[in-house]
Amino acid sequence: MNTGMNTDMNPAAKPLAVITGASSGIGAATARTLSALGHPLLLLARRVERIEALGLPDTLARSVDVTDAEAVAGAVREAEALYGPADLIVNNAGVMLLGEVSRQPADEWERMFDVNVRGLLHGVRAVLPGMIERGRGTVINVSSVAGRKTYANHTVYSGSKFAVHGMSESLREEVAGHGVRVVTIAPGAVETELLSHTTDEVVKADYQAFKDSIEVLAPEDVAAAIGFAYQQPQRVTLRELVLAATAQVA
Question: Which range is the signal sequence, renumbered to this chain (predicted)?
Fold first, then answer.
């Protein structure tokens, strides 16, 4: 997978894209989409064997927990030494632990904010100084419809995703003058492993029943939206894309 190609040596080569949470679901689908477009990739996830199984060319796979800022930054430095500067990061890593606040373990709240908020910031910090220096780059933050509106049993998860929306918009204001784009992708229900993290079996069963009642989004649908946003001219920022299954009412 790792060919050692350096984009500085090949002006026609596509720039490096970084994807967190790349071992499954939206992350893996986005990796396939961007690889098909010719981009070398840095793919980060705890389950590195799942990344390697994708078999994508010009790809550096690293087992990294996004809550570890040094590990994220170190992997980015390693990939940039191979492939040139990162022009895109897709902050996709996230956990969804649904439950009622009155009964949900507090460590689940902490895990969601650690991954969904602090982990996202670690990804941003790892690439942003270089993007600002070069005067171009794109930060794509994968949030959720639950970051725009509320749902039962989503209180803390929604809070973490509302934070993603707020941070993304404020970050855009900080970096727009430096030629850096910030995009928020807000999907509705998607057929991924995200629900499996929920430990409340009653809540999990209710949400699964909802998913089974409609044709939810496929990870490839979200990956296509990410690719579409990134392929716009650098002078164009699609600030927020909200997508959901047509049958998803709320």
Answer: none
Tokens of 224: 């296509």
Does the residue 142 lie in any domain?
yes
Instruction: Assess whether 157 carries a catalytic annotation.
Output: yes
∠ CA(63), CA(68), CA(71), 5° rounding?
55
Per-residue pLDDT of the chain (250 residues; tens, 9 = 90+): 543 333 333 445 899 999 999 999 999 999 999 999 999 999 999 999 999 999 999 999 999 999 999 999 999 999 999 999 999 999 999 999 999 999 999 999 999 999 999 999 999 999 999 999 999 999 999 999 999 999 999 999 999 999 999 999 999 999 999 999 999 999 999 998 877 888 888 888 888 999 899 999 999 999 999 999 999 999 999 999 999 999 999 9
CATH number assigned to the domain comprising residue 22: 3.40.50.720
Write down the catalytic residue from 83, 157, 207, 230: 157
Best CA proximity match to 160, nearest among 218, 203, 119, 102: 119
Range of the domain at 179: 7-243
Beta-carbon contacts of residue 8 (< 8 Å; ≥ 6 apart): 84
Assess contact for 145 and 244: CB atoms under 8 A. yes
Using an 8 Å Cβ cutoff, are 131 and 178 in contact?
A: yes
Report how far residue 130's alpha carbon sits from residue 13's, in angstroms, rounded to the nearest whole number.
19
| pTM score, whole prediction | 0.93
- Is position 16 within any domain? yes
- Distance of alpha carbon 116 from alpha carbon 66, whole angstroms: 9
Examine residue 2 and state whether it is found in any structural domain, yes or no.
Answer: no
Total domain count for the chain? 1
All residues at 6 or more sequence positions from 236 whose CB lies less than 8 Å from its CB, including other chains: none
